[in-house]
Specification:
Elements lengths: L23 H17 L1 H8 L1 H15 L6 H15 L1 H11 L18 H30 L6 H10 L1 H25 L2 H7 L4 H14 L1 H19 L6 H19 L41
Helix pairs in contact: 1-12, 2-12, 4-6, 4-8, 4-11, 5-9, 5-12, 6-8, 6-9, 7-8, 9-10, 10-11, 11-12
Length: 301
Amino acid sequence: MALTDVILPIEPASTLPRVRKIGLADLMDALAKGARDFWEMPTHVIFLCAIYPLAGLVIYSSVFAADLIHLLYPLAAGFALIGPFTAIGLYELSRRRELRLDTAWKHAFDVVHSPSLVPILCVGALLLFILALWVAVAHSLYVAAFGLQPMTPLAFADAILNKPEGMVLIVYGNAIGFVFALVAASISVVSLPLLLDRNVGFAVAVLTSLRVVVRNPLTMLAWFAFVAGALLLGSAPFFVGLAVVLPILGHSTWHLYRKAVEPDSGPRPMYHPARKGIRYAADFPASLFARSRRPKDRDMS
């Protein structure tokens, strides 16, 4: 097989992707395959995911510095909302390994060449909007319970654990957060791998993801619960566990998509990035933004 890449077909999809019935055995198999991907590409995925523990520590320190201790839990729990988008490079590495293509870490960024880049970014923007909405709701619940007076970490812990308002905040906050997490997970669990793999639009990708959840409600609830628990465990020791948890979950999500959505039986045209021309100093600063129309010397022979 040639080591050229197929990001997406360039012909529009004519029918909705068909979804399958899956069970707990499929989840276990997807996890096993995801773990094998991680074992085969550990340096790549750890490099790609090292930023997430660092980002977690930045959020942790920023929350304390701004006296927003009440937002620490919503932000940590809300990480799962955008997790599928941040794992897009891991899906690509698993896809390439499946096709026996080069899996060097740089190929995790091949998504920028995809014709579906805009729909992928739209899904990411939607997940960010859901996260922002969840944080705003969590802040409103805190203000309704305790007002705008900032608390020290010890005072906040005492209020949450020993006051009636704290119990109300825990119950309502987790219930509302569950709804946000369920919505975000349902629209992204299949949509992002599907957009990376096939030429479908934003609406078709999200609809397909929802159809997978509707057809497999108990199985997908089990998957969402496992993901939430794994992220919680990975976040507990100062977020360092995310460097292992995230890549395994990302690779496993790709294999879950393969099990939940029937593959396209049609041929897939090759996608080739645009050939770069020569940039000339005389064209500065326009040469920074536009490629020269003049071909390279080797193409003129």
